[in-house]
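Incident log, structure service

09:12 report received: a user says their structure output differs between two submissions of the same chain.
09:20 pulled the input from the user's history:
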Amino acid sequence: MTKQWLLIALLTILMGPAGAAQTRSLHILLTNDDGYDSLGVKAVADVLQAAGHRLTIVAPLGQRSGSGMKITLGELAVVEQAPGVWSVDASPADAVSIALNHIMKEERPDLIVSGANFGQNLGANVMISGTVGAAMMGVLEGIPAIAVSVGLNLSEAKAEPHHFPSTIAAFPAAARLTLAAVNALAARTGDALLPAGHMLNINYPASAPGSVVKTRWAPVSRFGGFRLIYPSSSGASLRSWIEVDARAENDGESDTALFAAGHATISVLKPDWNGAAEVTTGLRDNLAVAIEQLTSE
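09:34 re-ran on a clean worker, output below:
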């Protein structure tokens, strides 16, 4: 049922103009892991507000990429930088938790949008992504969520005057796809925006303005969009960097493979760590015998 619903929603996104599906204005919590004033957040905020959605922005003070669902204990600096725009000197997951349980406690949002992020979050990389982690924190708090990321061309890492110019150029198109998805969810009269405990993960490729990018539904890959490498060392220190995970490009119809082929992808994620019962029965039986032997000694 969930897959059937997703295909219907995706057809709505692909076949109609960005504003066609909207039937109601949503109150949206906008966050990210690049900082409250990042270019990706601004691009998404501009498009959502222009379409009539109401925004509250609560995001990290600065760059917090790769932080997953990290939480911070102790004193946290929370500052209202402008009306309805808050910075949190902590992780993206902290920002969402503080938004839902402090700043927006009396009026929780209808939806959380996390992004648009600098860099794709595909396959196994969703486990370490601060962008996805922020959205997952919302899902665990009972709020439907969408994570949005735009790909990086790593050869542009040292480009001037701005790093990753093709990512920046793609932010407006990624924001329009995000709006289309939000409006498709808003059009679901009588239904929840998303099935309980689920979220969407959108990835848009770095591309030139005006280029035609097709959007595909995609299951999550076994591999990540990036992999960590350690190309140089100095004494006891290692320098880490990332490279595109070439294994992912041949992973069937997965999000990583389709993204590598130039498509934008939409995947459904569910932050649920339960192992599949059909493959763990024998393991549970083995453990039960071992535990029984231990307690009988």
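09:41 both user submissions now match this output. Likely a transient worker issue. Closing.
09:42 reviewer note: Confidence is low (pLDDT under 50) at residues 1-5, 13-22. The radius of gyration is 20 Å.
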